[in-house]
Amino acid sequence: MIFTFISLYFNTCCIHGFRYLVNSMLILLERLLWLILLVLSIYYCIISCLSSVERFQTKSTHIGLERNSYYFKTSMPAVTICPMQRLNKTFFDQYCLGKVKGKAKDELFDFLENLANSTYTNFKDIPQYDSIDDSLQKLDIEPKDYMKLIYNLTYDGTYEPIEKLRIRCVDGQVILKVRQILTEFGLCYLCSSYLGEEYSSRYLIFGMYPESNKHLTSQQVVDVKRATFFDKDVGFTLMGFDVTAIDSYIHSAFEVMKVDNNFGYSPEGAAYEPEVEEIVADAELETETSIKQRKCRYYHESNLTHYPFYTKNTCLQECRINLAYRVCKCIPHFYPNRIANPKPVCSYKILKSCFANHAGYFLKFYENDIDEKPAICYCEQNCIDAVIKLKSALAMRGAKQLLGSMGKFVFHEHLAKESIQAASHLFVYGSFG
Ligand SMILES: *[C@@H]1O[C@H](CO)[C@@H](O)[C@H](O)[C@H]1NC(C)=O
Ligand SMILES: *[C@@H]1O[C@H](CO)[C@@H](O)[C@H](O)[C@H]1NC(C)=O
Ligand SMILES: *[C@@H]1O[C@H](CO)[C@@H](O)[C@H](O)[C@H]1NC(C)=O
Ligand SMILES: *[C@@H]1O[C@H](CO)[C@@H](O)[C@H](O)[C@H]1NC(C)=O
């Protein structure tokens, strides 16, 4: 009964080939052959269907075109400045308060100053005095406290009451927000950035948002300066660094700095002429596509462990944390470590031994010099970003104070495959007198 039904169905079925399975004219071997052919064809049919679905989910392309380019607004790049003189002597004196005296105190200051100024390229410069271990023990400082102590002993110049001395970022009447941040080069200052308040030293070290700056409340403060084709003079000035040298980084306003990408130490002011290409995304891109489809992440779509937000460079920093942890079994003090299972923080001795030997490889994501391939590290792009190309950077000898800004403003655009990019030449003049 059932067999007759199946044979009737196969005989009249629309799918080519089924008929031969039940054709009594054919011998068993031939039917078997047909069966194999049928199974294979159905198998490949399913495979090719699934690959279309997969392609839809991961390799979709979106092409957009915006016509009114004259009204594009391009954001000025961000500037990160790391002062090369870190600690405040007054704070240090208060902190020691007779517990550490004389030569040991001077040595401790030198040690902490260098620790605060340390990054992958200069771990070997941390001095090793005989008195250090003793002093650290007296003050009850363990490696996990290094960064908190450095934060406590650093004077945040953005809160300075006297305007002339304050670390500030201005363009004429407009004030741009400046904040102290935690970077792979210790505590630095950032101006002109779209990143949220999570990216501040206080949040990354203590989990608290920065205090509001009571000296600025009466003025108009903007995050980032934006400009269109019709704006002639665009620029801003970051100043108030009362030190002998600074280290500067110019990067996208949607990104954090890269410690291996600085523009050199400069004892005086510097002027930069960057070219900005902004990558913008449709408002619907975020809601209508998954991360897998668009292959990029927004700021708040973080899957990182140490950072509560996502940018490509923070993702790379996290790769470096994991690499350092794998090789040296601990992580440097300048990384946020407020996570469920904090990783051990390296003592200065390990920084001097293990890190000084591997630092160059860590920066390039190699485990050691024998490795041919970089350590595995996959970081998605930022959905909204800007590409900065520096056309020229001039050290301004003798120009201790350059106020205002000048420069011409050229504008051109190109259309990239997956996004619209607007490009413009902007001049950022930083004066750090
Ligand atoms: C801080 O580190 C930089 C880079 O290694 C170095 O050029 C500078 O002299 C250091 N600053 C101090 C005060 O030692
Ligand atoms: C140290 O901090 C005090 C504020 O408590 C400030 O007035 C002084 O200028 C700071 N010194 C340096 C060298 O930054
Ligand atoms: C830093 O300062 C805070 C508040 O003033 C204090 O509670 C903390 O113990 C200090 N941390 C270190 C390592 O000195
Ligand atoms: C974050 O997501 C990417 C893929 O989207 C993955 O490769 C990476 O391992 C994830 N990172 C963490 C820390 O889970």
Automatic annotation (TrEMBL):
Name of the encoding gene: Dgri\GH13616
Chain segments annotated as transmembrane: 32-53
Keyword vocabulary terms for this entry: Ion channel, Ion transport, Membrane, Sodium, Sodium channel, Sodium transport, Transmembrane, Transmembrane helix, Transport
Gene Ontology annotations for the cellular component aspect, listed alphabetically: plasma membrane
Pfam hit, one: ASC
Membrane topology: Multi-pass membrane protein
Signal sequence interval, chain numbering: none
Subcellular location, record wording: Membrane
Record carries keyword Membrane: yes
InterPro entries: ENaC (IPR001873)
Family assignment from sequence similarity: Belongs to the amiloride-sensitive sodium channel (TC 1.A.6) family.
GO-annotated molecular function: ligand-gated sodium channel activity
Domain of life: Eukaryota
Coiled coil regions, renumbered to chain: none
Protein name according to UniProt: GH13616
